[in-house]
Amino acid sequence: MRFNENLQRLKTYEAGKPIELVVREYGIDEKDIIKLASNENPYGTSPKVVKKVQENAHKMYLYPDDSMYELKAALAKRFGVSAEEIIIGAGSDQVLEFCARAVLNEHTSVLMSKITFAMYEIYALQQGSKIIRSSCYRHDLDEFYDLYQKHNPSIVHICTPNNPTGDAIDKEYLYSFLEKVKDPLVVVDGAYMEYAAYKDPKKLIPPRELIAMYPNAIYLGTFSKAYGLGGMRVGYGIAQKEIIQQLYKLRPPFNITTLSLLAATEALKDEEFVQRAIEKNFAQMDRFIHFAMQNELEFIDSYTNFITYLLPQNINAKDLANALLRRGIIVRDLSSYGMNALRITIGTPEQNSIFFEKCKEVFDEYKR
Ligand SMILES: *Cc1c(COP(=O)(O)O)cnc(C)c1O
């Protein structure tokens, strides 16, 4: 059997550990497990969304409306764009995949930050494309520009706020880069934009303005993070019609489920819920900053619902993550990104208190 050669360079993506796995492998009761590993909204989704899905559960035998009329209309209204400027994906991940397949092949390259969302590389490698990375995890767009001139990449990935580091760039800084970079598709991934916009309005990249000024840009958003719908798999891309039309050729029919469409549309109606969750997120973030300072840990100033602790040499990220796992706490160890660091999703006040307690327990053990 002959597989596509591009697969040889690929490893299977390792997603955050699910609660079920910790139950099975560590024999810990499900109710004692705290998952702070995948940046879900710990407050869940709006109760109105849950109600809507429950009321419509019997409709699961029906194929969804493949035009996604309602959700697109709601997004169009929210962002002040037209429905033809929107594509919906099974998570913004699927839109990323469409972008890669639309643009890349064995003769192209993709530019991204040294440490950023792992799927950019995976989709590019699937197409046989070359990966160019900057030397710093922060988006140093001067360096990006140098690399752009040198390698002429077909896609440039800008992840702001960046996952797994949590830092974000100013809108004006991005725009000054885009002024000079007219050729590649520039993918602006705003998976955590709702959080960043709350903390600092300068970080907000409005999709309508972005695509009006820069026809080679596409903005990606998702319902998986602030909207609390990770399990429903809904994301979107916003770009000029010419780009969206090309991406549409790659979209499988019915790529979003009937109930997911309803959930996302309903979620957009309860902005209040999302804003409350974001406020609580940053109030809890202060506790994580305080904890880091108390324990002499460095951290990256975060514009998201997670924080990245940079660990000293004597604490190994993998060991610490495992020690926490044995105590029922799932966090993301960043060693596979080449960083001795942990990424921790900001949980509810109760979850965070337990995290601090268990983390302290492990640190005290190290000291002995
Ligand atoms: C979570 C995430 C996504 C996509 O999530 P979906 O669930 O596929 O919508 C995209 N980009 C970044 C940076 C993320 O953290």
From TrEMBL:
Gene3D superfamilies tied to this protein: Aspartate Aminotransferase, domain 1, Type I PLP-dependent aspartate aminotransferase-like (Major domain)
InterPro entries: Aminotrans_II_pyridoxalP_BS, Aminotransferase_I/II_large, HisP_aminotrans, HistidinolP_aminotransfase, PyrdxlP-dep_Trfase, PyrdxlP-dep_Trfase_major, PyrdxlP-dep_Trfase_small
Protein name: Histidinol-phosphate aminotransferase
Subunit structure: Homodimer.
Annotated EC: 2.6.1.9
Pathway membership, UniProt: Amino-acid biosynthesis; L-histidine biosynthesis; L-histidine from 5-phospho-alpha-D-ribose 1-diphosphate: step 7/9
GO biological process, one term: L-histidine biosynthetic process
Superkingdom in the source lineage: Bacteria
Domain Aminotransferase class I/classII large: 31-355
Stored NCBIfam families: hisC
Catalytic activity entry: L-histidinol phosphate + 2-oxoglutarate = 3-(imidazol-4-yl)-2-oxopropyl phosphate + L-glutamate
Alphabetical keyword list: Amino-acid biosynthesis, Aminotransferase, Histidine biosynthesis, Pyridoxal phosphate, Transferase
Annotated family: Belongs to the class-II pyridoxal-phosphate-dependent aminotransferase family. Histidinol-phosphate aminotransferase subfamily.
Organism field: Nitratiruptor tergarcus DSM 16512
GO MF terms, alphabetically ordered: histidinol-phosphate transaminase activity; pyridoxal phosphate binding
TM regions (residue ranges): none
Location of N6-(pyridoxal phosphate)lysine modifications: K225
